[in-house]
Amino acid sequence: MTPDEPADEGLDTAMDPAAALELLTSEQNRMQRRMAAGLPVILGAWGIAWSVGFTMLWLIDGLAPGFRMPLPIAVVTFIVLMAGAVVVSAVAGARMGRGIRAGAAAAWTGSVFGLTWPVGFAAIFVLGSALLSAGMSREVANIYYPTASVMFVGIMYFLAGGIWQNWGSIVMGGWIVLVACIAPFFGYPTHYLVFAVAGGGVFLVATVLTAIWAYGRRDSGTGRR
Amino acid sequence: MTDLDPVIHAQGRLRITAALATLDPDESISFPRLQELLGMTAGNLSTHLRKLEDAGYVDVAKSFKGRTPVTYLSLTRAGRRAFEDYTETLRSFLGGVS
Fold first, then answer.
1. Mean of per-residue pLDDT scores for chain B
2. Are residues B11 and A100, on separate chains, in Cβ contact within 8 Å?
3. Half-sphere exposure for A68 (CA within 13 Å, toward CB)
4. Domain spans in chain B, listed from the N-terminal domain onward
5. DSSP helix, strand, coil percent of chain A (3-state; round to 5)
6. Distance between CA A149 and CA A145 in Å, rounded?
7. Could you give the CA distance from residue A154 to residue A176 in angstroms, rounded to a whole number?
8. What are phi and psi of A106, to 5 degrees?
9. b/e for A195-219, b at 16 or more Cβ within 10 A?
10. Alpha-carbon torsion, ordered B20, B23, B27, B29, to 10 deg
11. Any chain A CB within 8 A of the CB of B42?
12. Does the beta carbon of B22 lie under 8 angstroms from any beta carbon of chain A?
């Protein structure tokens, strides 16, 4: 044995098939969990942004006349929370992906998917402006902007589940689209509360589930969860 | 047990191979990140990687990030195949005799 030979080399031959399979599955399980360690952070940031942010918008008129949240405070809080979640996502995403070099096809898919976000939101904004100039009332605009945005987010999550083969993302995306379809029927301002509870809620549930999976007790490595 | 690939059937190399197999076929991982994920010493990891590279199972690609050299690692097609065969052999040992 040369000096730089690993110390465990001697034990290696003694490893029986059951132990080897156990080691193999637990190693793969551990690797996948550690690679996804930033996921609960990202989902949690969006859960807080949606729950608190949409609740703030609801509070502008939701409890009137008993209580009215000043409009600037509500809007600024909403924007700061959303911007904060974007920053958290970018940082946590970069941390998760550090040291990983994607193949050309995967890099292309990721870039185009990433670019779809600003393109989609810009299109929603421009369409809203067009509708306003065509006579859309402020009341309807209050419903149009958040609903179109939420629906777009849901479609993107659904699509992400298809691209990266993740059922959790598909279920979440489907749920968010459903929330966007139902919320407008509640009218202003209750639709904001629906987005806060049903929309923010699904992010918070996903945060808990992914946190349990990623940080949970390391089990015997049977490969389940 | 003679059928088990001796290149993979060693604790350190099995861990490395299993970890690399979780990446997509055209993905690769930097040496420091893999070292961090596996919790191995750099020397231990290099030694095992050399054996896997000699067997043609691991591709070691040197590149530059700015001016710093970075080594990226991935399973070769033969390595992925060997790992699948190895896993299948293990399963047949454990469940095959009926």
1. 90
2. no
3. 6
4. 11-88
5. 75, 0, 20
6. 6
7. 5
8. -70, -40
9. bbbbbbbbbbebbeebbebbeeeee
10. -50
11. no
12. yes
- Residue A36 is which amino acid? A
The tally of CA atoms less than 13 A away on the side-chain side of residue A158 is 12
Is it the case that residue A225 has pLDDT exceeding 50? no
Q: Cα–Cα distance between B50 and B39 in angstroms, integer?
A: 18
User: Sheet of B28-30: strands edge to edge?
Assistant: A100-101, B28-30, B68-75, B58-65
What contacts B57, CB < 8 A, 6 or more positions away?
Answer: B7, B8, B17, B75, B76, B78, B79, B82, B83
Is the separation of the CB atoms in B9 and B49 below 8 Å?
Answer: no
pLDDT single digits (tens) A178-207: 999 999 999 999 999 999 999 999 999 999
> Burial level of A174, CB count in 10 A (0-12/13-18/19+)?
middle
Residue tagged 């976000």 (tokens): A117
Mean pLDDT of the A116-138 span: 97
Reading the block at residue A106, the tokens are: 């995967």
Secondary-structure class of domain B11-88 per CATH? mainly alpha
Cross-chain residue pair B9–A20, CB shorter than 8 Å: yes
Contacts of A104 (CB under 8 A, 6+ apart): B26
For chain B, give the number of residues: 98
Residues constituting chain A: 225
Chain B: give the shortest CA distance to residue A210, in Å. 18
Q: Is the per-residue pLDDT at B2 higher than 70? A: no
The beta-carbon neighbor of B18 closest among A28, A34, A103 is A28
Q: What digits encode the pLDDT tens for the residues A11-32?
A: 455 578 888 999 999 999 999 9
Q: Which two tokens stand for residue A214?
A: 């990623």
A79-101 confidence digits (pLDDT tens) = 999 999 999 999 999 999 999 99
Give the sign of the dihedral formed by CA B39, CA B41, CA B46, CA B49. Answer: negative
Are A75 and A57 in contact by the 8 Å Cβ rule? The answer is: yes
